[in-house]
Amino acid sequence: MIIFGFSNQKKTVGIFRCFTVTALVVMVIFTVAIVMRGERMTAEYNGNVYSVKAETENDILRFAGFFGLDVEDKPLSVKNIIIPAEFNDVYSAYNDIQKLSGLDLVNYKGCLCRLYTYRISGSQELVHILVYGNRIIGGDVCDEKFGSRMYSFSEKKTDVHDVL
């Protein structure tokens, strides 16, 4: 008489099922935690909270309006750029400009972003707004003349009010 150890096979299948169910539960918990955590869609400047949501161009215009920037309704250009994975001195200085307005590019190193360029109405100044996903992450204000000084949004701000 030959006897095979089928009971060990049943234990192996049972352990595999238990492991699979546990792995699925852990994956669901992590997925829910990530979705629930989300990324805050606000930032703070000078004690005032403002929206960094960029789901539509109107959201971007509202963001510019928070800083008193009266930009034209349509961007001059929209292009894809990559935030450098490592900041050199120039990009570190550019990030310092972001921090003046309550923003920071450090978490977006190596990310593909969209760069919106708007003209300030009746001016030769340009507003650059960096968007990652549906979130405004940075930008600057400068004269359209090449090599002009860049300003943070807050350096050009004229009036503080909540825009959420």
Question: Any overview of this molecule?
Answer:
A five-stranded antiparallel sheet has the order 3-4-5-6-7. Strands 1-2 form a two-stranded antiparallel ribbon. It has three helices and seven strands. The protein has helices at residues 6-37, 57-66, 89-99, and strands at residues 42-45, 48-51, 77-82, 112-119, 125-132, 135-143, 150-151. Mean pLDDT is 81; it is low at 28-38 and 158-164. The longest helix is centred in the N-terminal third of the chain and has 32 residues, at 6-37. The chain folds into two domains: 1-38; 42-156, no CATH class. The radius of gyration is 25 Å and the shape is elongated. Strand 6 (135-143) and strand 7 (150-151) form a beta hairpin. With 164 residues, the protein is α+β, with helices and mostly antiparallel strands.
Essential attributes:
32% helix; two-stranded antiparallel sheet; single chain; disordered C terminus; alpha+beta; 3 helices; 164 residues; five-stranded antiparallel β-sheet; elongated; 2 domains
Topology:
Elements: H1 6-37, E1 42-45, E2 48-51, H2 57-66, E3 77-82, H3 89-99, E4 112-119, E5 125-132, E6 135-143, E7 150-151
Antiparallel strand pairs: 1-2, 3-4, 4-5, 5-6, 6-7
